[in-house]
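Re-run with default settings, no changes from the original entry. Doing this only to confirm the output is reproducible before filing.
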Amino acid sequence: MTEIRGVGIGLGVAQGPVARMAEPLPAPADEPSALTPDEETARVTDAVAAVARELEERGAQAGGAARDVLEAQAMMAEDPTLADEVGTRIRAGKTGEFAVHDAFASFREQLTALGGYLGERAADLDDVAQRVIARLRGVAAPGVPDPGHPFVLVAKDLAPADTALLDLDKVLALVTTEGGPTSHTAILAREKSIVAIVGAGAAKDLVDGET
């Protein structure tokens, strides 16, 4: 059996079949918009507001540290600097989807370069971007799978909104290939006493159903 190493969060042992998180939505194509800049801006503004409200509602439902984390994510979604970056791209003729993807990716690179606590907020930013793009496309954002039985959740990283509302009757443990001990995933896993290992790169090769 292959040994997979990562950073353990909290204490405990769990065993069960793997269920992998759905892959992120494919990146939007860089193609000209068929709408006016004003129309694209209105679409993005509505989508961002809807995502921010959803995160706040999830936070209120979860309470505790999760509420603080999700409220911070909602503020991130409505960050004026990001809105300006998205607007610049829309005025250049890009679609709302591509403008959000590209602006958030640029901001993510800046956070990652800073490292430490701010670097670990990059995953939170990815989640907000995915939710906004999904809203613009009229599709569901990738979320926690439901195979119909208890499972060990394996993911690249887990969005705070998903970690906050994990069904602990179903999710036996959590393994992420990225993230560290100060990521929001780790903070929330600790608070909810979820058996978790983060930064376990080799877990990328685990497949659904494997024990």
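The chain has two domains: 7-23+143-205, 37-137. The beta strands are 7-9, 18-20, 151-155, 171-176, 195-198.
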